[in-house]
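Lecture 7 notes: from sequence to structure.

We start with a single chain of 671 residues. Read the sequence below before looking at the structure.
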Amino acid sequence: MTVSLSRLLQPKSVAVIGGGAWCKSVVEQLQKSDFKGDVWPIHPKAGTICGLPAHPSVSDLPKVPDAAFVGINREATVGAIEELSTIGVGGAVCFASGFGETDDGHAANERLLKAAGDMPILGPNCYGMINALDGACLWPDQHGCVPVDSGVAILTQSSNIAINLTMQSRALPIAYVVTCGNQAQLTEAEIASALLDDPRVTAIGLHIEGFKDLATWQAFARKAHEKGVPVVALKVGKSVEAQIATISHTASLAGSGAGATAFLEHLGIAQVGDLPTLVETLKILHVAGPLSSTEIASVSCSGGEASLIADMAHETPLTFPPLNETQHERLFQALGPKVAIANPLDYHTYIWRDVDAMTQAFSAIIDPNIAITFLIVDFPRKDICDADDWECAINAAINTRNATGGVVAMVATLPELMPEETARRLMAGGVIPLAGLSEALGATIAAQVQSQCASDVIQPVPVQEAQALSESAAKAALSKMGVAIPALIVGPIDDLAKLADKSAGPYVLKSTGLAHKSESHGVALSLMNSHEVLSAGAKMQGDTFILEEMIDDKVAELLVGIVKDPAHGFVITIAAGGILTEILADRTSLLVPASRDQIEQSLTQLRMAPVLYGYRNQPKASIDSALDAIEAIQAYILANLTTVEEVEVNPLIVTPTRAVAADALIRKYHD
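Now the structure, written as tokens:
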């Protein structure tokens, strides 16, 4: 929709239609949040609701409300929405269920959309929204939001997850919570885009079950980038592998989960895998914005904690850069000769309780090249311990932030060892309180600077069932686009055997009509003469075979596949190739169209990338040839968008001088 959502999201007057417990709770939450605007309950029989006079109908309201909560049954909801739309209400929450999410609700859904017209609606089948900035909430239940001057916006399709997130005790300042429900009219991307118009929103967190309109998501991502508002998403609901996984390696590696990941990367939206990391990432983004690099520093008074964080970060992109000369000098001045100066730093306990000395030491390690500095401190249980001894750490952390302006986080190794009261004090002082070492590292990775939203994605159009081309036809089609293929001949085994004696091998013999030739004993390698060709052919099924040149100077084997994901567009999968593709599970995905730079970056993300670049003095692969081949495979997709379902080359054999498609699969529809 192009209609503004400002009256719905920042209402100055609210109508609540219905007299049940849910509607009473909406009024109670407005009263509890000290909403300054008018609240008008609507019920044909009730005299008062929560101490406020009830109006018999929408037409009896003294003014047109900015927003309304509709908490009545499905059929009555449609009529109420029509009334609200007719008088020009700014938007409404549809609480009732039984619309598009049920088999018998689609007709009701259509009537609801017609009744709403141009009036924005949230839902149906949703709790609505909380605006903690203005104390305005259309919300039928208790929640944990408190008044804030600025904060993050959280959007989710699930009302229950929304409630749980408001109850977090991690000091995340939440400005908005919006539940999207069925998204019959307003999509999650459209609502998120509207929230970008409020300058008090510092970051946006998304819990996403699925993408409806890819173009709308693309528009939101671009707007967020332009406004400098970072976005982080938790995508759930990964579907089972497509049926074509029995035919192709690409489908089993890619699937819908890989498509969603590639789509979010394409949009420049950070991703996390769980709710705790989502909360911690939003805290970093709220205080510091996106982080500038993966270089971090850690300070603790325990060698165990220094070793722990070093080990936990070892398999991540995060690094601990060696301390420079200036850091060394400052730390030596602060800590003296008894402390080994390193990153991560164990400063022992010599300076504990000395706020000035702790501030000096903490400040000494802050450096512009370090994205974030962790101060590891675990706070005691206040119910059985005295926490006064830890005041020095809080004060030193806040002093360090004020003195240096650096990005400073105080991290508890266990989430429960960061009390909410302490976290709020740290947050107010500009120090990021992170609950849990694992969550802190995951959030730091997610909070890295995201790239600008890339070119428009391609929304695939569903058509009839695709058919697989023969291997020789697939190779011929790709060859026309510039993909190098082996010299090959197709024919009966006797003819191929005669040809094998006319020139030196080695050759590869393949049976035709088999998708997975290795598993089906349909391929034989290193054949040198007619006798070996005949012997190999006798063990294979079929009357027609392929005899082709064997590429014997390989550096590495890659899988390059592109599948059409109905939800996200065409997904490119680049993986370690050959017969161990699924076992190695070394892969990366991105969306079509991808630039050459994006493709090369994906190659470097593979665990087997060192092999391509000449591991342990072995020959280096021709990276340019590999990139040329991948771009040519993508070009085939772009030239056949309406007819192609999937292309896979496995293996793409990369040598020091070329990249050759040793096997190819194309599934497409009739032209």
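DSSP finds 23 helices and 30 strands in the chain. Keep this in mind for problem set 3.
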